[in-house]
Structures are given as structure tokens and as C-alpha cells.
Amino acid sequence: MAQRTHIQKIRNIGIIAHIDAGKTTLTERVLFYTGKTHKIGEVHDGQAVMDWMPEEQERGITITSAVTTCYWREHEIHIIDTPGHVDFTMEVERSLRVLDGAVGVFCAVGGVEPQSETVWHQADKYRVPKMAFVNKMDRLGADFWNVVDQMKERLGAHPLVLTLPYGAEEDFQGVFDVVRGTWIAWDEASQGMHFEERPVPEDRREEVARARESLLEALSEVDDAILERYLGEEEIPEADIHAAVRRACIGLKGVPVFCGSALRNKGVQPVLDGVVRYLPSPVDIPPVKGEDPKTGAEVERPPRDKAPLAALAFKVQMDQGRKLTYVRVYSGMLKAGGEFLNPGKGIRERAARLLLMHANKRERVQEAGAGSIVGVMGLKETTTGDTLCDPEHPVLLEPIDFYKPVISVAIEPKTTGDQDKVDLALSKLAEEDPTFHVRLDEDTGQTIVSGMGELHLEVLMHRLVREFNAPVNVGRPQVVYRETIQREARLEGCFDKEIGGTRQRAAVTVRVAPRERGAGNRVESRLPEGALPEGYEPLVLEVLTQGLDGGVLRGYPMVDVEVRLEAARFEEGLSTEIAFRAAASVALREALEAAGPVLLEPVMRLEITVPESFMGEVIGDINARHGKVEEIGPRGAVQVIRATAPLSRLFGYSTELRSLTQGRGTFTMVFSHYEPVE
Ligand SMILES: Nc1nc2c(ncn2[C@@H]2O[C@H](COP(=O)(O)OP(=O)(O)OP(=O)(O)O)[C@@H](O)[C@H]2O)c(=O)[nH]1
User: Fold this and answer.
1) What pLDDT score was predicted for residue 138?
2) Which residues line ligand 1 (CB under 6 A)?
3) What is the CATH number of the domain that holds 506?
4) Model confidence at 120: pLDDT above 80
5) I need a labelling partner for 131 at 20 to 30 A (CA). Which of 90, 409, 520, 600 fits?
6) Total number of domains in the chain
7) Where does GTP bind (predicted)?
């Protein structure tokens, strides 16, 4: 593309789905029809273009979010791949932060599964406009209207049905375009690349006319302009219907619904038309907000090339040994060779190259304007969640909300002598994934890795073998605890010693207090102006901040604690930096010990789907695991149990649930909150 695409013709979208709904297959078809790949890759023969990591091909699930650019009807579409497995919820969240619209894929047989619900609600949280594609209309048991009903019931969505299936299962013959009142038939020989519009067969006309009526009715409920004309029985032109669907979709009042079979190459192009017609461009969403790093005042950055640069790094990937950082440009222009500020880290960075990532090739571009998403080579220290901005107009965008790791295991190289190789590989993986942490346990000398769940760690350990040829032995998983305090305490810590023949003395008074659960830590100074010589106060605050990394009970990180530096005694000639560091550390430790420290453990939120006949066993088992059942309700033919339980009691739960329910139970599990250990 020689010329840059106009911002109103850019779409940043994600495809969100439950595992196996057909997200990869749909994406493959999209890339094929938009002309970017020449062969359709099948997920399970190891050819899929999006799922490029061997790990994903083996498991058949999509884990990382790669960005892929394609073009449809003069629009530039960036597809941000999102994972379907809840252990990777964090990947979904960070994708949701940078996309402007989403397509939810549902299986016409399985319908709205619990995991799709989780992701859909996450998208609601970020106010992302959505469309839906009901896939697998060719499968035995496919039921389009059932899925539409489930979207209302379970997702609280207001469906706007735009294509209807013509037939189902083996007899699925394409779709009816509800707005135009036509039948779209795909040509099989061209793998669905070609299609034609035909008249609706006589025996289906009434059904299509009824669907058009229902669409107008559904639009009238959310759009006054349509309501008036609908009640006045006016003929509403196609363009006006599309405009109303677009208003409803962007205003989060309606969800355009399409159907088809990605595998059978039917129904995909109308979805692409929908992306272009109904989903927002970067100018249709509210301007990004951030804060001025100096004053803390809230600032907005408009989606315009001429405004100062504001961009968010949302993903780091190692690419042939080099760092590739995916960046969403909200405002201004990112230029190849350009220098800009990373205000969070207080450093300058330079973009060596800008790349538009297509599924099977990359295209070097010289600039990326407001609204676009690019891969950047050459950023040294920028990590996921960092802002990049114009040094003259600094802004700090809200960082991505990371989940804290809740589970850890000790690992060691399988082959002695491989330690360096393993360490290097681990540090690369940790750089890509902010929820994967690596540390050395100083007492045992073991390497401890932590992450979001058993599967998360399992996948990363497989990658060690496949990508780095660095196999490891893995210990038993352990829960990552936290510590906090239950009451307030105020204490003076003193340091008074002779070091190398010189007397060193300082005293620091610290007050600690519990904060609300989930509020995080806060360290602040209440020292009067001039209480300490220049440079000492930041030093003391740094010691206090770092001191919270390891708690006083068992060395786990402290959370939800407020620390105030209230007083400091400085004596000329005696009070060195070392003395102040030591005094601050003593003061904090003693104050925390006096403030009733407790150990906290992660509690998970479970949603378990089981046939009625297994309810008794499953609930009994949850109780045995110290879990609390919060809600039970029917969903179609099965029962859904919502519960919470400590993670420490949930290891191996998937195996247990399978054996309790003869393989028929499924569940999702996400971190809920921390609770004091009983
Ligand atoms: N019958 C039928 N099968 C389909 C259709 N689309 C996808 N499939 C099959 O469903 C399975 C899952 O498809 P994927 O595209 O891998 O699904 P996904 O949602 O990407 O799954 P994850 O990558 O695991 O999240 C594969 O075996 C596909 O061949 C369809 O339209 N009809």
C-alpha cells in the first residue's frame, strides 16, 4: 500500500470465541478472501497461518495475540488475535485494550459457552462494540435461533439478525441477506472466494420477509429515527438500515448477527462487509485518556495524525532473537527512525523499523498514523503496558491491568550444565509475557517460575523444549500467597553502628495501615519541607517501597498496605545514606510486625457445567475442597454451578471433574480475590 489508509477506513478488531468455536478457521478464511494468503491452511494439519507457534498447532488452541493486517473494500483491517482459554484471560484483556471492535464467534451447536460469556463480559467492561458470527451451520444439530436466544439470555445482547441460514446441517446452502432480501450462494470450486446473489426461493420468501420485519422492529427499539419511519410504514432504504445498525452497534445498543460455516466456505464475506459497515473506526470511539506525568492532571489525546504522539505498547514478542513490540498508536504519528519518550521509565527510545504484520509476510512502512497498529523493531526497554509519546507533550496512558501470578513451580534443567540456556530462555519468555515471573529462591537455590494457572505454566514449559531446546524437570505446583496487615502501627526505627571505624546513625518513623482489599500498596512521604538534605527522601521512599516486596511472615509480597514516612532524624556527620537505608528498613519491618500480619491465599471463581445427574457429586466435591457454592441454575439441558474455592485445593481439578462426571462436566476458572488463610 503506497498510500496510507485514511483513519476512518481503519478497523482494529479482535475475534473472540470459546475454544473450538472456529476462530482460527474463520480467520484463515478472512485472510484468504482478502487476498493475503494463497492457500487455506487447516488448523490440524499444521498449516494454519495465524497459529504460528508450534505449541498452538500441537494443542490446536490459540494462545498469543498476533496482529494481522488485511484489506477489504479499501479498508485496512488489523485483526488482533485473542486466545480462547481462560488461563490466558490476561491476553484477552490486553487485546481488548487496543481494539475498537470485536467479532464473537459461536458454534451453532454448542451455543454460548461459559468461556464465551467470560470474554464477552470482559469486552463489555471495555465498552467494545461487537458483532456475532454463528459458525458451523453445517454441523449436525446446528440451531441458529437457539444461539440467538442464548445471546439474549446469557449475554444480555440485543441481536440484530442480518443473515439467515438457508438450510442447516448437510443441507446448509448459504445465507439470506435480510436487508436486501436475497440468497447468497457460494461457489465451492473456488473455496468460497466467489459467490453470487440469487432470488430467495419461493418457499422461503415469507421467512426472509419476516426476518426483515423483525430486524426493523429490533432497530426501532434502539433507534428513534427508524422507529418513526417504521411506525409510519415508510419504506426504509438499505443505506439507512445500515446506518442505523452502525449507530446501534457503536452505541453498544445492538449486536449485528451473521451466520455461516467457515469450514464450508460459506457466510464469511458478509461478516467482512459487516466489519467495514458497522464496527467503529478509531475516530468513532472516545479519545484515549491519560495523565500528565508531571502534574497528574487528566489529559485526552484525539485520534489525529497532527496531534502529539500517544501510543501504547501492548505486546512484546521475541522474533528471530530480536524484540518486536506491538504498538497501538492512538494519536499523532510514529515514524521509522523517530525518537520518542517512554514516560513511565523516563527514557528515550528509537524505532528502527515499523512493520505491518501480515499473516505470512511483513511489510516495512515509514510511518504509522493515529489509529493504526504496528510492530516496532528496535525498542530496547519498552515493555507491555508502557506508553510511548512525544517528549514535548508527555502523557502517560493507563497501564494494562495485569493479573498477578497465582501459581508457581520449582524447575531445574533436565541436563546438568544447561542452567545458562534455561535461564536465558526463561528471561526471554518473561519479557514476552508480563504474567510469567521468574525468580531464584535464595534459600534453596531453585529457580521458581509463576503464572496464571496450571495450563499457562505447562504451555510455557513446552515452549522451553520446542523453541529453546531447554527441557526442565518441574516440581509440584504451589500457590503464590500474599501478605497483608490487619491494623495500624507507628514505629521509629534506629540505626546506630560503627562501620569501618566511623559512627553512623539515623532514625526514621513510619506509620503503616491496611488499605481496602485490592487497592494496592501506597507509599508516601509526610515529611516537612527540608527535614532531610536533598536526595535522602527519595532514597528512603525507595527502601520502603521495595521493602513491601517481601512480607514479614513468609517473604511473600505484601499487598494493600499504606506506608507513610512521618519523621526522620538527621545528624550532620553521622547520618549517612547507608544509615538511612538501614533505619528505614528496620522501621518498616518492625511496624509491619506490630500491625498484625496475615497470610492471604488466592481464591478462584469457578463456573462448572454438568448434567443434572452429576450435580450431587460435583457439589459434594466442591464442599470437600472448602469451596462455597454461590449459585446453581439450569442452562438448557445442563446445570451451571457458580462457586469460589481456594486455589490450593484446586490442583488437578480438571482430571477430577472428568472422572466425577464421566467426562461430561466442563469448567472455567479465573482468579477472584485473596482471602486470609483459615
Ligand atoms: N463442521 C464445521 N467444523 C468447523 C467449522 N469451523 C471450524 N470447524 C472445526 O472446528 C474445530 C475448531 O476450529 P478452530 O478454527 O481451530 O477453532 P478455534 O476457535 O480457533 O479454536 P482454538 O484455536 O482452540 O481457540 C476444527 O476441527 C475445525 O475444522 C465449521 O464451520 N463447520
Assistant:
1) 96
2) 17, 19-25, 43-44, 60-62, 84, 135-136, 138-139, 261-264
3) 3.30.230.10
4) yes
5) 90
6) 5
7) 17-24, 81-85, 135-138
